[in-house]
Amino acid sequence: MYAFTYLRPGSVRGASKALATKENAKLLAGGQTLLPTMKQRLASPDHIVDLSQIDDLKNIEQKGRRIVIGAMATHASVASSALVRDNIPALAALAGGIGDPAVRHRGTIGGSVANNDPAADYPAAVLALGATIHTNKRKIAADEFFAGLFTTALEEDEVITKITFPMPSRAAYQKFRNPASRYALVGVFVAKRGRDIRVTVTGAGSNGVFRWSAAEAALSKRFSVKSLEGLSISASGLNGDIHASPEYRAHLIAVMTARAVAAA
Amino acid sequence: MTKTGIGASVKRKEDQRFITGNGQYTDDVSRPGHVHAYFLRSPHAHAVIRRLDIAAAKGAPGVLGVFTGDDLAADKIGGLICGWMIHSKDGSAMKAGAHPALAQGKVRYVGDHVAVVIAETLAEARDGAEKIIVDYEVLPAVIDTAGAQAAKTQLHDVAPRNTVFEWAIGDKAATEAAFGAAHHVTKIDLVNNRLVPNAMEPRAAIGEYDPGQGAYTLWTTSQNPHVARLVLSAFIGIAPENKLRVIAPDVGGGFGSKIFIYAEETVAVWASKKVGRPVKWVSDRTEAFLSDAHGRDHVTHAELAMDAKGKILGLRVKTIANLGAYLSTFSSSVPTYLYATLLSGQYDIPAIYAEVDAVYTNTAPVDAYRGAGRPEATFVVERIIETAARQMGLDPADLRKRNFVRKFPHQTPVIMMYDAGDYRASLDKAMEIADVKGFGKRKREAARRGRLRGLGYSTYIEACGIAPSQAVGSLGAGVGLWESAEVRVNPTGSVEVLTGSHAHGQGHETTFAQLVSERLGVPMESINIVHGDTDKVQFGMGTYGSRSGAVGMSAIVKALDKVEAKAKKVAAHLLEASEADIDFKDGKFTVKGTDKSVAFADVALNAYVAHKFPTSEIEPGLKEGAFYDPTNFTFPAGCHICEVEIDPETGVTEIANYTAVDDFGVLINPMIVEGQVHGGIAQGIGQALTEGAVYDASGQLLTASYMDYCMPRADNLPSFKLGFTETRCPSNPLGIKGCGEAGAIAAPAAVMNAMTDALGTEAVTMPATPQAVWKVAQSQQKLAAAE
C-alpha cells in the first residue's frame, strides 16, 4: 500500500466536497475491494474519504410498498433485517450469501453497487427489482445506472446515499459459485412485480449485469419453469476464463434461471 | 495400554499454544533492529536480462542494500543444489542447469529472483524495488509438459531438448514378452495435475550475523533444519557448520514444500552480514504461489497386460515429469525412485518396465509434495486396473483380489521388497463399511433425482519410513536417511527428548512423549520434546516421507533402551541386588521375587548424585543418544472407496461417501492418525476435484491466488468413514508404518474411479471441476442420443 491522506467527513456533503476538491480521491465504504487492491499496489489514491462515520447512511426502513436501504448498510445487516426478510426475502438471502462472514460485516450495499464488479451479487437484485439509486444529487433508475464493467452513471463527486427497492410479489436469486473465489460465476435474479417480470444475470456478461429479455418475455406469458423450456442464450458477449467458458456460462444462465423461477 | 501410552488417543499437548496464539513461528521472531527483504521477481517466464540498474533503488529512503546475482558471485556464494543424482538409460548424469539464488543474466519463470532490496521497513523495500530498472529481452516460454522436449526454445545450455534425464526401471525384455502373451491389453493416458502446496504458514526467514562470534543464525520455516544447514554450509558456502545455527521454530504446515533450500533464506542470512542488521523475509501468499516448489505434474501413458482370467502379466509405463525451471533440492528423486518403485501397487506383477523423462519448463520448480511420487504411482496403477476391470467386464474388487500379493516378503520387479501386509483384509473391511452391496440401490435412487452416482476403489500402497541409508545411497541420494535421538533424564526424573524429526503439525510433542511415558512411567507433562534447532539437537534428517514415527521414534526407542540399561545398573546398587535380577515396569525398578523397589525418579536423582555406585564402573548422569538407520522401507497400504454423485446439469460433484481403511501397522495415537488421514484425503480430493496450477502459454500463472486456485473446503468434503487393519511392520521395533501421506496418495484414484464410473467414460481429467464434468456429461449425452 502506498501512503495516502485519510479523511473522515461527518456528512454526505462533506464527503462530496472532498471528492470534488481533493486530488485523486476515492470513497471508502466497506473497503472489501478497494483495500485489497491498494495493498497489492494496484490502486494508489492520494486521498481516502471514509464514509463510515455518517450514521444516517446505515438505516434500513419501510416507506409504503418500498424498502429503503442506506448505502452504508452492511451485507450482514441487510441479511438479518426483519424488514428485508419479511418483505423481500430473496434480497436478504442474496446479502447473506455474499462472500464470507468477515466480508459481510464490512462490505456495504452502496460500495458493491458503486463498484459494479461484474461478478457482484447486488447489481442483479437492484436491476431485477427495479430499484432506485439515490445520490446526493439525484435519483437514478437501476436501468440507467449500470454502465459496464466497473462503470456506473455516477459522476465524479456523486455519493450514493440509499437504494429504494419496491416489493416484488415473487423473487429469487440463484447463484452458481466460482469454485475458487465463490463469487458468482453465474447469478440469476428473477422478480415478478405485477406485470413487470425481470430476469437479470450477473457474473456472466462481459459488460456486467444485464437483463435476459427473452426469458422475461417467456415468463410474462406464464410465470413458470415450463415457460423457459427450450430457451437458451447465446454465448457471445459472455465472459470466459479458466473456470467457465462462455458456452458453459450460457448453459448455466438457463439452468439458474429455471431454478430461480422454481424457487420464487 | 496406559492412559497416555502407545495406542491412547491423547489430546495434543501442542494445540493449547497453537490455538491460543502462543505459537512461535518464524514471523513471530523479532531480532533487535531487524530490517526487511523484498525480492524483485521476474514478471516474465523466460527472458534475458539486458540491463539491471539498481542505482536509484540504492538511494531510495530507508534502503540499506540492493543486491544482485553478481554480489552473490563476488562473495563466492554457490547456487542452489539438487541432492539426488539420477542417471539416464545411457549412463549419463542428469543435466542440472545452474540455479543461482539471484538471477545471473537470465530468468526462467515468473517469480524467479532478480534482485533483493533490504530496507528499514517492508514498504520502503518495496518502494526501492520499484526503482530498479530492468531491461528484459523476452524469450519464448516452454510451458507444456508433454511438449517440452520438442520445443524450439531451450532453458539451460547443458540440457538439450529441455531434458533433465531419460531414466528407466524394470526389465524391458520380460515386459515386452508379457505383452506378447497377453489376452487383453488396457491402455490409458493420464495427466497428474500440478499442485501448489499452500501450507497455512507461508515460508519465512530471518538471518542474523553476530560479528563477535563470526557466526550466523537463521530462523526459517524448515522441515529439516540440519539438512538446511548442511546445504547452506557445504554447498552454498554461507559459513562452516560450526558458524551457522539454523532454527526451525513452530512451523505451520509443510507438505514437503519446506524440505527444500530456497533462494530467499539463502539471501536473507547472507545479506545480514552485508547490511550489518538481522534481515527478515516473509512470503506473501502470491509469492508462495509463484515460488514455493509445486507438486506432481506428470503426463503418463500406461499399458497393462492381462491373461484371459484377469491375472496381470505385465505393466509398462512412459511418464514425462515436469520439474519446472530449475532442479529443486530433491526434485529428481520424486518421479524416479519415489514413483516408479511403487508401480507394482498391491499386486503380484511379474514384469514391469517404466521410462521417465524429466523435463525443464518455464514454470516454478517442482519437488516433493505430500506423497511425492507415490500418489502419481497409485493414480497410474489404480486407474488402469479399474479401467481393465471395466473393459474385461470384471468386478473391480474381484480383479484386485485375484492379483493381490499374498505372500510376504514379496520382491517386486521394481526394487521394493514388501515386508508385511494383508490387502484382502483392508479391501473387505472397506467394502463392508462403505456398504458396497447397497450401491446399486443408491445409484438407482440417485438416478431418479437426475443424479449420476459412481463408486471407485483405490487399493494403494506406499513406501514410507524413508529410508535405509545404504540403499538410497546406491540409488543416488546425497544424504543418509537415518534419524537421531537423545534422551536426557533430569535429576528430578523429568525427561527431555531431542529428536531430529521436525514437527510442523504432526503432533510429535504428544506422540513421542506417549512413547517415553509408557517406557519410563513418567507422566506426559514431565516430558519435553525438543527439535528444530541445530544448536540443541546434534544432527537429524527431518520430517517427510511419513518417517517420523517409523524412523524418528525408532531412534528414541534405541536411546530409551540405553537409558533403561544404565538405570538398571544404578538401581541394582540402590537395591543392593544383582543387575540381572532387576525388572523395570510402570516406572519402578524391582528386584525379582521381592517387594523391594525404587522409583524411576529416585534412580535418576541417584544417577546424578552418584553417591551410591562406583563411578569407576558406572558414569554419573543419565543421558543417552542413538542413531537409527532403518533396514527397509515401511509399506503402509489400504483401501479407499469413494462414492460420488454428479449433477449432470451443472457438472457439480458431491462426494456422497468416502471410506478409508488403512493398515499403518501399530498406531501410537489413533486420534492423531485419524487427523492425518482426514487431512490427506482432503488434499487428495482437492487434487481430484478442485486444485490445479494453470500457466498460460506465455508462462503467467493464472492461479496465483485463492480467487483462482481452488483449495478444497469443508463443503467439498463429506464426513469420512475410517477403519483400520493392522499388520505390524517387521523392520522397526514399534511395528509402525507411517500415516502422514496415505490419504493424499489413495484419494485421487478413488475419486476419479468413482467419477469415471458415474460418467461412463474414462475421459475425465483432474481436476474434475464443474466445467470439466459438464463438458464430459454433455458429450456423453450426445453419444447416447446418437445411439
From TrEMBL, chain A:
Pfam families hit by this protein: FAD_binding_5 (PF00941)
Keyword vocabulary terms for this entry: FAD, Flavoprotein, Oxidoreductase
UniProt GO molecular function: FAD binding; oxidoreductase activity
PROSITE patterns linked to this entry: FAD_PCMH (PS51387)
Keyword NAD: no
Gene3D superfamilies referenced in this protein's UniProt entry, alphabetically: 3.30.465.10, CO dehydrogenase flavoprotein, C-terminal domain, Uridine Diphospho-n-acetylenolpyruvylglucosamine Reductase, domain 2
InterPro entries from the UniProt entry: CO_DH_flav_C, CO_DH_flav_C_dom_sf, Diverse_Substr_Oxidored, FAD-bd_PCMH, FAD-bd_PCMH-like_sf, FAD-bd_PCMH_sub1, FAD-bd_PCMH_sub2, Mopterin_DH_FAD-bd
Residue intervals of the FAD-binding PCMH-type domain: 1-170
PANTHER family, A to Z: XANTHINE DEHYDROGENASE SUBUNIT C-RELATED
Protein name: Carbon monoxide dehydrogenase
Organism: Candidatus Raskinella chloraquaticus
From TrEMBL, chain B:
InterPro entries: Ald_Oxase/Xan_DH_a/b, Ald_Oxase/Xan_DH_a/b_sf, Ald_Oxase/xanthine_DH-like, AldOxase/xan_DH_MoCoBD1, AldOxase/xan_DH_MoCoBD2, AldOxase/xan_DH_Mopterin-bd_sf
Name under which the protein is recorded: Carbon monoxide dehydrogenase
UniProt xrefs under SMART domains: Ald_Xan_dh_C (SM01008)
Keywords: Molybdenum, Oxidoreductase
GO MF term set: iron ion binding; oxidoreductase activity
Keyword Oxidoreductase: yes
Species annotation: Candidatus Raskinella chloraquaticus
Residue span, Aldehyde oxidase/xanthine dehydrogenase a/b hammerhead domain: 20-140
Tree of life domain: Bacteria
Pfam families per UniProt: Ald_Xan_dh_C, MoCoBD_1, MoCoBD_2
